[in-house]
């Protein structure tokens, strides 16, 4: 029986986003989502500098310009404790994100995806970050990332994404996936649900893919071993 990627869970890193694709998302739509997120993130990186509110606004407006639409925008709120416990996802979706994060940091075949994620998440560091996922040594750090789940039902594609922004001051070997809400680690998250107009996106699909390829650098990588 031929393998069909749409019938299993998969994951990928696209710039500073960890995307989990639920079973049922077609291979074409997975590619559309990955390319859209990379295209929008690159536009946001060019336009925003270190202003992470501007970054997400540019990211979202770029998606809308290529035939995505907003279904829900949550209000940013502070996190106390483990970020994963505070996400507005179902228990099963949260479990898949945890599996993807564990695979990202524990499996050797995901080294490229891990390096891409860490490099894209952290804006600048006072010293080298240690190799494990988002664990950092002493120093001051700022950054942003998204943990996202993509689903498809009757051809309709939607992505629920939690956008996290964090600041760390003087932390000693701890993960920015945990926030004490104080000086050492402060994190805010907001949930956004975005839909893809697949029919209209088909008109720009090849042009977006070509622009990404023409850059000569790919900022997406698969995550294996879920």
What does this structure look like?
By secondary structure, the protein is of the alpha+beta class. It has six helices and 13 strands. It has helices at 27-48, 52-65, 91-106, 111-121, 198-201, 205-214; strands at 10-14, 17-21, 68-73, 77-78, 81-82, 122-124, 135-136, 140-153, 156-169, 174-175, 178-179, 185-196, 220-223. The strands form three sheets. Strands 1, 2, 3, 4, 6, 8, 9, 12 and 13 form a nine-stranded mixed sheet that branches. Strands 5-11 form a two-stranded antiparallel ribbon. It has a two-stranded antiparallel sheet with strand order 7-10. Strand 8 and strand 9 form a beta hairpin. The longest helix is centred in the N-terminal third of the chain and has 22 residues, at 27-48. It starts with 9 loop residues before the first strand and ends with a strand.
Salient structural properties:
single chain; 226 residues; alpha+beta; two-stranded antiparallel sheet; 13 strands; globular
Summarize the structure.
The chain has six helices and 13 strands. The protein has helices spanning 27-48, 52-65, 91-106, 111-121, 198-201, 205-214; strands at residues 10-14, 17-21, 68-73, 77-78, 81-82, 122-124, 135-136, 140-153, 156-169, 174-175, 178-179, 185-196, 220-223.
């Amino acid at each position: 029986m031929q393998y069909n990627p749409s019938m299993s869970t998969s994951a990928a890193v696209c710039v500073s986003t960890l995307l989990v694709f639920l079973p049922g998302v077609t291979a074409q739509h997975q590619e559309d989502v990955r390319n859209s997120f990379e295209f929008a993130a690159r536009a946001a990186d060019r336009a925003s500098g270190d202003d992470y509110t501007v970054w997400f606004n540019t990211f979202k407006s770029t998606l809308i310009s290529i035939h995505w639409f907003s279904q829900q925008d949550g209000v940013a709120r502070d996190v106390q404790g483990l970020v994963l416990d505070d996400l507005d996802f179902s228990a099963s979706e949260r479990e898949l994100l945890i599996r993807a994060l564990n695979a990202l940091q524990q499996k050797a075949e995901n080294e490229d995806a891990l390096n891409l994620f860490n490099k894209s998440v952290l804006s600048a560091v006072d010293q080298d970050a240690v190799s494990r996922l988002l664990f950092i040594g002493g120093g001051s750090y700022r950054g942003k990332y998204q943990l996202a789940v993509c689903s498809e039902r009757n051809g309709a594609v939607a992505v629920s994404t939690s956008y996290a922004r964090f600041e760390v001051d003087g932390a000693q070997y701890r993960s920015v996936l945990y926030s004490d809400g104080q000086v050492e680690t402060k994190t805010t998250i907001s949930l956004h649900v975005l839909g893809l107009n697949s029919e209209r996106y088909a008109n720009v699909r090849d042009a977006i893919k070509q622009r990404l390829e023409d850059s000569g650098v790919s900022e997406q990588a698969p995550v294996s071993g879920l």
